[in-house]
Amino acid sequence: MASARTAPAAGRSQRRRRTSGPARSRGGIRWDRVARFSLLVVLALIVASYVGPAANYVEAWKFSNQTKAELTQLQHENKQLKKRSRQLRDPTQIELEARRIGMAKPDEKVYVIKGLPRRNR
Known about the structure:
By secondary structure, this protein is mainly α. The protein is built from 3 helices and no strands. The chain is rod-shaped and about 115 Å long.
């Protein structure tokens, strides 16, 4: 009699093993697929949360390059202006600049000659 009881129990457990598991053919919720889909959604949300900061980083990088180029240009211009400032501190250079724009010393006589061809500067 003990063997009769164990035989049907063994048959039932085999039946349950066949129907249980992810590959069931009966209707019902496939929790493994729900979990995979949920993980994909979470992954997509995480990736989407990185898009905004990454775009801001790229924009800041481009702006940094532009300002570096502008800084280089302004430093070059500053060097030229400092050089020009040093030149204009020299009295002979000041006199040359004044004569170039048509000025004369107070004790000098100015003569204007018309009809001469213009010089290219």
